[in-house]
Write a structure and sequence with these properties.
Layout (H helix, E strand, L loop, with lengths): L1 H16 L9 E4 L10 H10 L5 E4 L7 H4 L2 H13 L8 E6 L3 H10 L4 E7 L17 H10 L9
Parallel strand pairs: 1-2, 1-3, 3-4
């Protein structure tokens, strides 16, 4: 709980610093691997309470849980960009937040799609590579190795 409150305080401070007098920049929140946009509801709620009037959007890529690690990374980036471009509230600069391995998706989307991101905040994101898919200990070793090797496309190799 203390870590969550510290995270909220940090985010609120950054978002407040990066705002105009009474209007806050929109906030884009992206869920993590093996989760859905609903998992970001608590954080979005905190932002809405702490920053009244902020537009906060939770991005979901297809079905969330399975597609977060089975869908090719380049396809996830394409769908993420389409969600942002299709939202009229995100035509001007906005803040983007991601925690965990999907940080790679939002960072690459910001770069590849020239999104008007003002602040990109990532926590526990692996920007120099992914070690594998978490929580697979229940599978045999050979399956874990196979999934770890092929679950992620090399983001930069398909440009």
């Amino acid at each position: 709980m203390a870590a969550s409150l510290a995270l909220l305080l940090f985010i609120s401070t950054v978002f407040s610093i990066s705002t105009h007098v009474t209007k806050y920049r929109p906030a884009v929140l992206m869920h993590g691997i093996k989760s859905t946009a609903d998992d970001m509801n608590e954080l979005a709620g905190w932002l809405i309470i702490d920053l009244p009037g902020i537009y906060a959007v939770l991005i979901e890529i297809d079905n969330g849980v399975d597609d977060s690690f089975l869908m090719p990374t380049n396809k996830q980036i394409e769908l993420f960009c389409a969600s942002i471009v299709g939202d009229i509230h995100l035509r001007q600069d906005f803040n983007m937040l991601r925690i965990s391995q999907r940080s790679l998706i939002v960072r690459e989307a910001a770069e590849r799609c020239s999104l008007p991101v003002y602040n990109l905040i990532t926590f526990s994101g692996l920007h120099q590579g992914i070690f594998g898919v978490p929580n697979l200990q229940m599978l045999p070793v050979r399956f874990r190795r196979l999934i770890t090797k092929f679950a992620y496309d090399l983001v930069h190799s398909h440009r």
